Amino acid sequence: MIMSRGVEAVKPPSLPEDQEITPIASDRDIVTARQRGRTLAVQLGCSPTEATLIATAISELARNIVLYAKHGEIGLTVANGGGRPGVTVVARDEGPGIANIPWAIAGGHSTSGGLGLGLPGVRRLMDEFEISSQPGKGTTITTRRWKR
Amino acid sequence: MKVSILKQRDYLVASIQAALTDEDLKNLRDALVAQVGEHRSRGVIIDVAALDVMDSFAVRTLRDLAQMTRLRGAETVIVGLQPEVAFAMTQLGLRLEGVTAALDLDGGLAHLDHQTKPTTLRRAISNPGRRA
To answer: Where is the STAS domain (chain B) (predicted)?
Structure first.
């Protein structure tokens, strides 16, 4: 970091060490989760655009939980990729699960009247995307975006 | 109050003041569709500058709103979309198909003024040299 001489380094605001969990059960929680994601991204030094991309992805993931699983949680963690910070978003639920994952992430399909763009859209917004789901057991989606 | 709806001439101007939940968005849609009738409005302007995120639900609700008000005789214009929100919408593949957007309130009013002018008058203006 380059600093002007004689100026004390400004200590960055403390970042959450552990996963910050937001329980998701209603549309209000969707807003809470995405605002926390934005705050974390801004704390890491992400641009407003990056913070908005992360917040938008969280909004889509949290809405899927409310629509399909009724309740679940969004976990936020600071990721560290060789000195480069990132935000890891984990969306977890114990809902009906996704029987056909390739179909769900291919786009253009939806079973609840949505645009069918949820998951493919989230994949485009984020750098990494991983989904594990078991019908009847639930779904966990882990997605990450590195600071540019 | 998260949204204020003001009547301005023949138009309704809805200003979103804070992040909206899905329920808030649906209430806004229903309120505007109803008020277009109450005030015989010919245009609706929705200022979304304070919206933190435009995800698939928000876009769908705004598209529905525009379609519903159009069926009631009023055009809807979305104004104030932030550059980063526009970027995220594009990345997400969301389109505001069929909904007009303008940069700000002035742009929205100018668009509606042009749009809601009687056809004969508009033709006369676009062909100023032509004699009636």
So the answer is: 1-112
pLDDT over threshold 50, residue A113: no
Residues 6+ apart with CB under 8 A from A110: A116, A118
The fold of A20-146 is Heat Shock Protein 90 (3.30.565)
Of B23, B53, B60, the CB nearest to A56: B53
Helices assigned H by DSSP within B13-80: 22-38, 56-71
Domains belonging to chain B, first-starting first, are 3-126 (3.30.750.24)
Q: Is A145 near chain B, with CB under 8 Å?
A: no
What ipTM does this complex have? 0.86
**Over the stretch B27-53, which tens digit does the pLDDT of each residue have?**
999 999 999 999 999 999 999 999 989
Chain A neighbors of B62, CB-CB under 8 A:
none
Q: Would you list the domain boundaries of chain A?
A: 20-146
